[in-house]
Design brief:
132 residues; alpha+beta; Nucleoside Triphosphate Pyrophosphohydrolase; 3-stranded antiparallel β-sheet
Amino acid sequence: MKVIDKIAWIHLADRKILGARSKGKDVWYLPGGKREAGETDTETLVREVKEELAVEILADQAALIGVYEAQADGHAEGLIVKMTCYSAPFKGTLKPSSEIEEITWLDSRDSDKISEASRLIFSDLKQRGLLD
C-alpha cells in the first residue's frame, strides 16, 4: 500500500476550522503538507504553515490531535493519505501565501467542499464537541 505522509495544522476558532484552497483547485483542505527528508512532524508543520499562511507556528506548544487515513483525492484507488494533525498557537497575521489562493472558516456542514481525509477529521472534531 502506498501512503502519502502529510502533516496538517488544525486551527479552531468559534467552533470553526481554518481551511485553505490552492490556486486552481475547488477543494478546501487543512493547511500543511508533505514531510521533507529528515524532517520531524513539527518541523514540517512550521515550514508548511509558514509557506502557506505566512505565520510562525510555536512548535514547542504543538499538540497532537490525531492521525487519520483515507483514500487520497484525485489519485489512483489504493493510494492512501495519512494526515498527522496538530494544533498550535502562532505568531503573525494569517494570509494566503505561495500556492494558496484563499483561506476561510469551515464547519461540519462544509463536508461537500473538503477532501475525504478532511471529512474524517471534521467528523472526529464534531464528535469531540470542538466543531459545529
